[in-house]
């Protein structure tokens, strides 16, 4: 079939006339910190061409140079401080890949300049920091998002849809398991390990590092409702590797008509991030990023089961940095209980504060 050149040009012009002007523009991102190894994610994502890393803030030049060789960026992009970066570059958004403690300073520097911020999970070291960050974000009208790996799992979104459609009835119990064999056993680089096992910089061990996932997912499933009670238990099963922090944590969240058990651990023999949701009439299992199961109850212990291996979610819902750009451009509106949302993650920090208090005192903490 022949297609006229005029018709092709007309179609292209029509497409251009309805496309948003900002669609072809690259978001200018500054990366603050390289000590969190999730930073490799943004360097790999940049290759898709939707945003540009225009500057990097990292005092440790040896670390910056190692990553420069790996990701092929110029050391001319690397600055010693956020102040120096802002003086030299036009930055629209910041992604923070330093310690959790440093998240507050990133927002303190970026918010007054109207620069949007995405931090790695969790939002903040404690509620004191979180409240300051929230106030700054609201005062200066910036987006302040939190990134979790599990936010981008298609299996979790299928589970959420099954719950919201009533496919398994009302939620009664959720079990979330996250973790690995422990950072020391994984052989991660010292720049990351040093602060992961430092209670001042990370806020704790596994209770923070992996307990935050379950708190985030449960707040999403409950549409922003806080648990009434938080009970937590921690252990040091690898005292030689983690002398200052816990490496085993169980957090129990109590709601009016449901409960959740969050198991964050640095003692799993095999790394995992999975979730089970039990309703009144069935259950769903997000076994990993792609594998999803749905069970409908029949009788006492019989059930029917369907299994799916899911494809990646469609852009921009497949990747944190493409999502960040879409939010900044106004293509996506973030609901308060969404996984990346500030309001959701304020509750996450409140849950983690209560969990640490419960583990320390041996008592259940009631949330207001």
Automatic annotation (TrEMBL):
Domain Gfo/Idh/MocA-like oxidoreductase N-terminal per the UniProt entry, residue ranges: 28-145
Swiss-Prot/TrEMBL keywords: Oxidoreductase, Signal
Sequence ranges assigned to domain GFO/IDH/MocA-like oxidoreductase in this UniProt record: 159-284
Record has Iron as a keyword: no
Signal peptide location: 1-23
Superkingdom as given in the UniProt entry: Bacteria
Record SUPFAM superfamilies: Glyceraldehyde-3-phosphate dehydrogenase-like, C-terminal domain (SSF55347), NAD(P)-binding Rossmann-fold domains (SSF51735)
InterPro entries for this protein: Gfo/Idh/MocA-like_OxRdtase_N (IPR000683), Gfo/Idh/MocA_oxidrdct_glycsds (IPR050463), GFO_IDH_MocA-like_dom (IPR055170), NAD(P)-bd_dom_sf (IPR036291)
Keyword Hydrolase (UniProt): no
Pfam families: GFO_IDH_MocA, GFO_IDH_MocA_C3
Coiled coil feature spans: none
Organism field: Alteromonas salexigens
Protein name as annotated: Gfo/Idh/MocA family oxidoreductase
């Amino acid at each position: 079939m022949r297609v006229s050149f005029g018709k092709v040009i007309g179609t292209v012009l029509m497409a251009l006339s309805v496309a948003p002007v900002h669609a072809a523009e690259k978001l200018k991102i500054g990366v603050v910190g390289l000590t969190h190894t999730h930073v490799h994610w943004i360097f790999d994502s940049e290759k898709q061409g939707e945003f540009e890393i225009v500057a990097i803030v990292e005092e440790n030049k040896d670390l910056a140079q190692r990553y420069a060789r790996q990701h092929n960026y110029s050391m001319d992009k690397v600055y010693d401080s956020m102040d120096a970066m802002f003086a030299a570059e036009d930055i629209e958004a910041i992604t923070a890949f330093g310690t959790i403690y440093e998240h507050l300073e990133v927002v303190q520097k970026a918010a007054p300049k109207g620069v949007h911020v995405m931090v790695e999970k969790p939002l903040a070291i404690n509620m004191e920091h979180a409240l300051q960050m929230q106030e700054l974000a609201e005062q200066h009208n910036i987006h302040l998002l939190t990134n979790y790996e599990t936010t981008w799992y298609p299996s979790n979104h299928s589970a959420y849809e099954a719950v919201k459609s009533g496919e398994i009835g009302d939620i009664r119990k959720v079990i979330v398991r996250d973790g690995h064999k422990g950072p020391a056993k994984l052989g991660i680089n010292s720049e990351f390990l040093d602060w992961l096992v430092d209670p001042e910089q990370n806020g704790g061990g596994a209770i923070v590092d992996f307990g935050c996932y379950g708190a985030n997912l449960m707040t999403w499933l409950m549409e922003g409702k806080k648990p009434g009670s938080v009970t937590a238990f921690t252990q040091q099963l690898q005292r030689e590797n983690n002398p200052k922090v816990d490496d085993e944590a169980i957090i129990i969240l109590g709601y009016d008509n449901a409960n959740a058990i969050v198991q964050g651990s640095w003692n799993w023999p095999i790394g995992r991030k999975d979730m089970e949701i039990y309703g009144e009439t069935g259950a769903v299992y997000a076994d990993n990023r792609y594998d999803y199961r749905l069970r409908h109850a029949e009788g006492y212990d019989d059930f029917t089961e369907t299994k799916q291996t899911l494809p990646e979610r469609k852009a921009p819902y497949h990747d944190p940095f493409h999502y960040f750009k879409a939010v900044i451009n106004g293509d996506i509106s973030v609901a308060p209980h969404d996984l990346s949302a500030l309001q959701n993650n304020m509750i996450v920090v409140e849950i983690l504060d209560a969990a640490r208090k419960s583990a320390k005192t041996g008592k259940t903490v009631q949330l207001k």
